[in-house]
Design a protein that fits this description.
Blueprint: H1 6-19, H2 29-35, H3 37-44, H4 47-59, H5 65-82, H6 86-89, H7 96-104, H8 114-140, H9 152-166, H10 174-177, H11 189-195, H12 198-205, H13 207-219, H14 225-234, H15 238-264, H16 280-286, H17 296-302, H18 304-312, H19 314-326, H20 332-349, H21 353-356, H22 363-371, H23 381-399
Helix pairs in contact: 1-3, 2-3, 2-5, 3-5, 4-7, 5-7, 8-15, 9-13, 15-23, 17-18, 17-20, 18-20, 19-22
Length: 400
């Protein structure tokens, strides 16, 4: 809690006693804010809290990760409590709590409401059911046009055809395909098809076999269950399941990625770029003594905040901005040296809090992303991962 004048502290202590029952007075903050939302409303009403929160939001994107985590943990606790308090429920948009939690911290957006997660979950579940149902329906549609009944005579004839086809004459070309050691397995159709796929090709080229399969597919629903099972085992299309699975997986990844992106957008407006000077003292506070005399590349790689501090220096920003405007007119050796330095600085900056937290007004973002084009989607790690995944799935589909 921010430090306040004695009069305000006395007032809050008195109100605390009125709101909280005696048996809960010594419970932890999380429990109290969860059980008594009026506490959050009361605290956020104070102008001192409002001003401190306003300042914190302006600089939170430049905070180190551990401090930022603590800040958002406190905001989660307060705002989750405030949205259950009377001021929010009754739509008082002039309340300091509304300004902090809804306008600054973006807790009241539709994509952070419980109903939104319920709807997303329901839609996702229905999509999965629809995909699964569609796949099941396609697979089960074995007979597009429908077929008539299969007479006992025709059934007997088809079964005899299968038996004749399973026992080829030694002069049959199947013996030119399979190895001599597999001659005794000529009756094992599953074995032959698995080991010698070309047998399937030759079989399907045979009009006699084609006629059998055509008749079987037109009347398969009238076959006994065991024979029907054997027929579809022979016609199994594994590649179809692989492709459907791949498409389903990509849809799930896309849905999950979209939801994650929406949820992570904590602050649409963001804070302004820092105007702090990158003083020597700031850099020495970041780098421990044992690493202070290491080379620049090592320091920037290990301590990304050094790059952030360098870009926050308006002098450094001005120099880099001017050079970027004229760098194409410079000699090749100067350009090469400049871009080596930019690589080090921007690669470090993209691991620093200001970039990770999406502060687009930071000098580093303006230099590295807007002027030097380091942040384009085709230069991001996720882009290579997605391309690799899509390429792999395409290869699987083609191979299948």
């Amino acid at each position: 809690m921010p430090s306040m004048d004695p009069q305000t502290e006395a007032y809050l202590a008195e109100e605390f006693k009125k709101i909280v029952s005696p048996e809960d007075a010594n419970k932890d903050e999380k429990f109290l804010y969860n059980k008594y939302p009026m506490l959050a409303q009361l605290l956020l009403e104070q102008n001192k809290v409002f001003e401190d929160a306003k300042k914190a939001f302006k600089m939170e994107k430049d905070m180190p990760e551990n401090k930022r985590k603590l800040f958002w943990k406190a905001m989660d606790m307060l705002c989750n409590s405030f949205v259950k308090a009377p001021a929010y429920k009754n739509g008082n948009k002039d309340h300091n709590g509304y300004k902090i939690c809804c306008e600054m911290a973006d807790y009241c957006s539709f994509y952070k409401q419980t109903w939104f997660f319920i709807v997303c979950g329901a839609v996702g579940f229905l999509l999965l059911v629809a995909i699964a149902g569609g796949v099941f329906f396609i697979i089960r549609r074995k007979k597009k046009k429908g077929g008539g009944g299969f007479t006992k005579k025709a059934l007997s004839k088809m079964q005899s055809m299968f038996k004749m086809q399973k026992r080829p004459d030694p002069s049959d070309r199947i013996y030119t395909i399979i190895s001599p050691e597999d001659y005794d397995k000529v009756d094992d159709i599953e074995f032959l098809l698995k080991k010698y796929p070309i047998v399937a090709q030759y079989a399907l080229e045979n009009p006699f076999v084609f006629l059998i399969i055509q008749n079987g597919l037109e009347t398969e629903k009238d076959l006994p269950a065991d024979e029907r099972k054997k027929l579809w085992k022979a016609m199994d299309l594994t590649w179809f399941f692989i492709v459907c699975g791949a498409v389903g997986f990509l849809l799930l990844v896309a849905i999950a990625g979209g939801v994650f992106f929406i949820i992570r957008r904590k602050n649409k407006k963001g804070g302004g770029g820092s105007n702090k000077k990158a003083t020597w003292e700031e850099i020495t506070n970041i780098i421990p003594r044992e690493d202070f005399y290491k080379d620049v590349k090592f320091i920037l790689n290990k301590y990304p905040r050094v790059a952030q501090v360098v870009f926050e220096n308006n002098g450094a920003f001005g120099v880099l901005k001017d050079f970027l405007e004229i760098e194409k007119n410079k000699p090749e050796d100067e350009r090469k040296e400049f871009w080596e330095d930019m690589d080090m600085l921007c690669n470090a900056f993209m691991k620093a809090p200001a970039y990770k937290n999406g502060n687009k007004k930071h000098n580093g973002y303006k230099i590295c992303c807007e002027m030097a084009d380091y942040c384009s989607f085709y230069k991001q790690t996720w882009f290579f991962i997605v391309c690799g995944a899509v390429g792999f799935l395409l290869l699987v589909a083609i191979a299948a």
